[in-house]
Amino acid sequence: MTQYQQANSGIITPEMKRVAERENVSPETIRSELATGRLVIPANRNHLAGTREGALRLDPCGIGRAITTKINANIGASPNRSCKNEELVKLQWAVKYGADAVMDLSTGGGNLDEIREHLIANATVPIGTVPMYSMIVDKPIEELTKDDILATVEKQAAQGVDFFTIHAGFLRKHLPLISKRKLGICSRGGSLLGKWMNYHNSENPMYELFDEISAIMRQYDVAYSLGDGLRPGCLADASDEAQFAELETLGELVMRSRESGVQVMVEGPGHVPFDQIQMNMERQQEICDGAPFYVLGPIVTDAFPGYDHITSSIGATAAAYWGASFLCYVTPTEHLALPQPEDVKTGCVSYKIAAHAADVARHLPGARDWDDKISDARANFDWKKQIDLAFDSETAQEIRTRGNDISDDGDNDYCSMCGRDWCAVRISKELTAR
Asked: Is residue 378 within 8 Å of 386, Cβ to Cβ?
């Protein structure tokens, strides 16, 4: 049985126990949330087992509103650059800087099966993919067959992929809605399936094969991440008829996934004005019966290319506060280029900030303990402890000593901003000591 089926049978699995341990909640809390579909544990049986010699085993991770907000890092080779070893470096940087899961979105740059196997074998975090990318790497989308789809899903599930993005909610009847948009379809998977449907004058094959795909995923306990092929790619297209028409179909597919015993989460919009975020999160929760919401950003302004890790983390904090459980990072290279390892770091750190800020605002038990410990260290001029507690201690230490003759070995209990005599905290201590 899948994690979902076992939860509904009253069984607490080792994976549920591990998630409970990581989250400081009871195993029963994890089981009950999983049974309702409000939480998922993406954990392919083969990844859990570490089936390849020397492979790392998955450390199970939970995604849902009852526990801390998680972040995902997208990596992947493109037809223009990258190789399996460069993707491994990105994976390692992503995990080092806080990614709870990593998606391999490779579309070229070498043997995609080999890249995927290399990443899974070296990952303790869940690995996700968009199987369709591998289906058409050597052929045009128009030649995609149903046999291709099922064979690729089977192959990647057997490799150990933990969650699949399947764009099954974009239907043929939605095609006319695209013409009303400024940017059309921004989803790579959505655009390819739109082209297939238009060419064959047929329904989305992912929708038609949904039960067959579910059967394969149930066998390996792969979780669905139902793709949003009609997500808005700019503010002007946010919350439009196309986006919400697809969302209605995704709500239907959530129920079909659960009926098949397959864990499911739902992907959400990428560009949304700040004032529409709450409505979007709440609408998804209602339509998709509380299934974990996995959002890209959302980016709250289109006007800052090169800084979209900031424009999106603003939206991500709001999204996590109002209903999202899983945040897909955006790097500074979004809309511009393929991210490199340093971009992966920047994206991950930005999204750890967003996720943590939302968890503090949601008053999750213990969420603010970290902040309070750093505040205590600051109040006590304990620079070493403050830096040790920092999420990125290396960067904090580099900034602390940058261009200044300051060490923390003696009595240099001040920084270069105010110096000793103008330090507000020091003056405050003097006032309260009187």
From this structure: yes
Full DSSP string of 144-188: --HHHHHHHHHHHHHHT--EEEE--S--GGGGGGGGG-SS----H
Closest CA to 127 of 154, 69, 88: 88
Rounded CA separation 272/231 (Å): 10
Q: Which long-range contacts (CB under 8 A, 24 or more apart) does 112-116 make?
A: 112/77, 112/137, 113/155, 113/159, 114/84, 115/77, 115/83, 115/84, 115/87, 116/156, 116/159, 116/161
- How many Å apart are CA 223 and CA 221, to the nearest integer? 6
User: Of the CATH numbers 3.30.360.10, 3.20.20.540, 1.10.10.10, 3.90.920.10, which one belongs to the domain with range 3-361?
Assistant: 3.20.20.540
Residue 397 is encoded by which pair of tokens? Answer: 């230490």
What are phi and psi for residue 224, nearest 5 degrees?
Answer: -75, 140
pLDDT digits (tens, 9 = 90+) for 330-365: 999 999 999 999 999 999 999 999 999 999 999 999
206-241 confidence digits (pLDDT tens): 999 999 999 999 999 999 999 999 999 999 999 999
Q: At what angle do helices 308-322 and 277-287 cross, to 10 degrees?
A: 50
Residue 276 DSSP code:
G
Q: How far is C-alpha 55 from the geometric centre of its chain's CA atoms?
A: 23
pTM of the model: 0.95
* Nearest of 103, 310, 333, 57 to residue 223 by alpha carbon: 103
Closest CA to 42 of 140, 214, 163: 163
Instruction: Indicate left, alpha or beta for 290 from its phi (over 0: left) and psi (-120 to 50: alpha).
Output: left
| Helices within 238-340 (DSSP H only) | 241-259, 277-287, 308-322
Supply 145's token pair: 């067959």
- Per-domain residue ranges for the chain? 3-361, 369-433
